[in-house]
Structure formats: C-alpha cells, structure tokens
Write a structure and sequence with these properties.
- It contains 2 helices and no strands.
- The protein has helices spanning 9-20, 25-34.
- The protein is globular, with a radius of gyration of 13 Å.
Length: 42
Amino acid sequence: MPKDRLLDDEWVDLIQEAKALGLSKEEVEHFLRNGTETYKLV
C-alpha cells in the first residue's frame, strides 16, 4: 500500500467494532457526519 494510503490503526479498530456491533456503512457515515446529536447512549 502506498505511504499516502496508510490507515490509522485507531480508525481501523473503530470501523471493525462498528461492524461487530452490526452497524451498516450508512449508519457509520451518518454518525460521523452528524455526531451524537441523533443517537442516545445506552
């Protein structure tokens, strides 16, 4: 992988955790764009 395409390990872990929780790509994108305003923490 070219140097300019390296992935941050923490982002990779975050996305893997989201997948493990069953979140869709769209749900992750929505959260990243809109923050926590539309989500309630349990």
